[in-house]
Every structure is written in C-alpha cells, then in structure tokens.
C-alpha cells in the first residue's frame, strides 16, 4: 500500500492519483459538490441551526428592528379589523338603541343604516325620542330620499349621532349626555341623591305641592305637555318632595327632576316636558318671570290639531 507522504516526482503523483484510494476520495468530493449545487443542503443546515439558536442570540440592528416593527404592525392591524367587524356585527344585531349605544367604544364609531335606526328610534318613549331628533325632520329627509345612514361615536363622555346622506354629508346631528342616555331606555331613569346635587336644576327647585298645585290649574293638554306619563310617578316608590326644572332645552324639550323620599333615601326621577308647557308652570310659580322668546315657544293648540 502506498504511503501518504508527499510524492517526489510527477510519476509518483500520477500513480497515486489513479489509485483506488485517490479515486474514491476524488469521487466523494465531487459528489459532495454536486449535491450541494443541486440541493443546497449546506445552506439548509446552516439556516436550521440559526433558527434553533435564534432565541439565544441578542436581537439588535436595523434588520431586527424592521422585522419587529412589521410584526407589531401586522398584529395591530389584525386586532383593529377584528374589533371593527365585531362592532359592526353587534350593531346590526342590536335590538334597542340603549344596547347599541352601550356597545360603542371610545376608539371607534359605528355606522348603521337609516332603516335600522328608525326601527330602534320607534321603540323608545315618545318624549325621549323627541330629545334626539324631531320625528317630522326624520320623515322629511326620508321622503326626500336623502337620508342613507347613521354614524354614532362616543367622545368626551358624550355620544354623537349623525344623520348622513349617501355622500356622508351631515343632514342633522345631536349629542347625548349620560342623563339623556338613561332616558332612552324603557324604564324611568333614576338618580341617587337630592336635586341640590344636580347643577342643572340650581335656582329652579320648587316644593312638590306648589308645583303640582300650579300644574293642576292648567288645561289637560298642558298637563300632558309637562308630564306625558304621570302614571310612572304614581307607581314609583316614595313620596314627591321637590321638583326641579332644568335650564337646558334640547329639541324643544326640558328635563324635569322629581325628588322622591323613599325608604332607601332620596332619589330623583327624571322625565321630559315640552318647553311651551313647562314655561306655563314656571310663570305660575314665578309670576315675575317673563315669557320665553317666541322662536322657542311651541303652544299646544296648533300641535294637537294636526
């Protein structure tokens, strides 16, 4: 067997290169090179090794940072799309305006069709409905075929409702406070505490007996304009002590708070009265009070005769 020492001449080189051991070595190296060119197994093995040991190496550099930002952006976009689809599904499945408003998040609004909003609007009490939009206005824009959808959003503790046409132009809008939101439900809205703790009634709080005595002297239609559902007050627990009248007018409606003395403590029942009727009661309670401006006064006879 030839030794594996360096040959001394060219003939010895040739003899050893053509030997069995040299041929096997040459063919082995050639096979490795061909398989690497064909299958790139070296790169695959290196890649797998790097993937396995990836968690043990520090993440740094612009390439790592770009990859991380891309992954975070993808996850954030997926979450936004999921939340939007969920909000749209819940809005379509809402069975009441209160349920729809409760489902609104502070980060995004909800778009519903005009037909769905009209259905939900028709389910709330008439007095509360008028604080949102005038039903005559809604009938007019429906007849004009300009009303297409409704956008709702929650911002700064209030809910904004926008009536839009097909071009997303605002036809009319309103905002609701927390107290107004409660009045959109079917139950009588109730607040804990006394009228003194509600700034909107400050300076317009009257003893309950004086208020109802003054109301009793007015015509039945005026009484209905002030209290559209007196039965709800009669059915409430406790005894009326004081009545407060808000200083805010929304869609020709004024909020009225009736303080009740109950076994659980003082509570306030909230209701809505028509502006023209409430002013008649106030003028009896405060004789020196001037009448409201003509532009804000809606007297009952013409309204009822329609």
- Radius of gyration from the CA trace? 40 Å
Largest sheet descriptor: 5 strands, antiparallel
Summarize model confidence as the mean pLDDT.
Answer: 77
Poorly predicted residue ranges:
294-306
H and E order? HHHHHEHHHEEEHEEHHHEEEHH
User: What is the percent of helical residues?
Assistant: 40-55%
N-C termini distance? 124 Å
Question: How many strands appear in the DSSP assignment?
Answer: 9
Give the structural class.
alpha+beta
Count of helical segments?
A: 14
Strand order of the largest sheet: 5-9-8-7-6
Strand percent estimate: 15-25%
The 3D shape can be described as: rod-shaped
List the helices and strands and how they pair.
Layout (H helix, E strand, L loop, with lengths): L9 H8 L2 H20 L1 H12 L9 H32 L3 H6 L7 E4 H8 L4 H7 L2 H9 L5 E7 L2 E7 L5 E7 L1 H5 L7 E3 L12 E3 H9 L3 H7 L3 H6 L3 E12 L2 E10 L2 E10 H11 L14 H6 L1
Antiparallel strand pairs: 1-2, 2-3, 3-4, 5-9, 6-7, 7-8, 8-9
Helix pairs in contact: 11-13
Structural features:
single chain; 306 residues; alpha+beta; five-stranded antiparallel beta sheet; four-stranded antiparallel beta sheet; rod-shaped; disordered C terminus
Q: Can you describe this structure?
A:
The chain is of the alpha+beta class and 306 residues long. 48% of the residues lie in helices and 21% in strands. It has helices at 10-17, 20-39, 41-52, 62-93, 97-102, 114-121, 126-132, 135-143, 178-182, 208-216, 220-226, 230-235, 275-285, 300-305; strands at 110-113, 149-155, 158-164, 170-176, 190-192, 205-207, 239-250, 253-262, 265-274. Strand 3 and strand 4 form a beta hairpin.
């Amino acid at each position: 067997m030839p030794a594996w020492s360096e040959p001394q001449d060219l003939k010895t080189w040739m003899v050893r290169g053509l030997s069995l051991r040299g041929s096997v070595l040459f063919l082995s190296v050639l096979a490795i090179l061909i398989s690497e060119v064909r299958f790139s197994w070296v790169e695959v093995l290196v890649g797998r090794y790097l993937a396995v040991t990836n968690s043990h190496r520090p993440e740094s550099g612009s390439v790592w940072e770009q990859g991380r930002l891309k992954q975070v952006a993808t996850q954030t976009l997926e979450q936004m799309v999921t939340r939007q689809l969920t909000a749209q599904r819940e809005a379509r499945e809402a069975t009441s305006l209160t349920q729809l408003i409760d489902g609104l998040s502070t980060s995004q609004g909800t778009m519903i069709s005009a037909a769905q909003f009209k259905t939900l609007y028709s389910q709330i009490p008439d007095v509360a409905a008028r604080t949102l939009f005038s039903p005559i206005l809604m009938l007019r824009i429906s007849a004009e075929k300009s009303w297409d959808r409704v956008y709702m959003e929650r911002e700064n503790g209030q809910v904004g409702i926008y009536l839009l046409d097909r071009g997303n132009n605002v036809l009319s809008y309103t905002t609701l406070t927390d107290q107004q939101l409660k009045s959109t439900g079917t139950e009588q809205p109730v607040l804990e505490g006394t009228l003194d703790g509600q700034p909107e009634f400050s300076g317009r709080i009257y003893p309950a007996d004086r208020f109802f005595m003054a109301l009793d002297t007015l015509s039945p239609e005026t009484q209905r304009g002030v209290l559209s559902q007196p039965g709800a007050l009669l059915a409430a627990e406790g005894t009326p002590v004081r009545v407060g009248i808000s200083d805010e007018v929304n869609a020709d409606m004024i909020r009225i708070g009736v303080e009740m003395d109950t076994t659980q403590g003082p509570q306030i029942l909230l209701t809505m009265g028509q502006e023209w009727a409430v002013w008649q009661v106030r003028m009896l309670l405060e004789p020196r009070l001037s009448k409201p401006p003509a532009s804000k006064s809606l007297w009952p006879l013409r309204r009822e005769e329609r």
